Amino acid sequence: MPASLNHHSTWYKSIMKSISDSAETLYTYENAIHGFSARLTYEETRLLKSQTGILKVVPEKIYKPLTTRTPHFLGLDKIADKFPESNATSDIIIGLLDNGVWPESKSFNDNGLGPIPKSWKGKCE
């Protein structure tokens, strides 16, 4: 960040303005890292990568669920209103607690869940 600027967010705004008038900043990160997320076209991404001070530009990864039962098991079907369908930013923090995989875990108990959906293209290993 140039010394003339008083905050990282000011720097990010000036960078975005220099590459496009329509580039959209989605979120500014300040706690664990300094950075920002943005919605960019391919050309805007190319221009951003060429800016001084930009260490890395990483495309968004789209993940697909690897299970058909987890949302139900976690009770997410009961709180759907907490997860509105939107492209907007939010204050939701998602944490992952991984304590290993155990075949005896209730996560693997499918009693009473009915047949596997026909749309599922996975396999049991």
From TrEMBL:
One of its GO terms (cellular component) is extracellular region. Coiled coil: none annotated. It is found in: Secreted. Keywords: Signal. Pfam families: Inhibitor_I9. Residues 5-64 form the Inhibitor I9 domain. Its main location: secreted. Belongs to the peptidase S8 family. This is Inhibitor I9 domain-containing protein. It comes from Flemingia macrophylla. The lineage of its organism: Eukaryota, Viridiplantae, Streptophyta, Embryophyta, Tracheophyta.
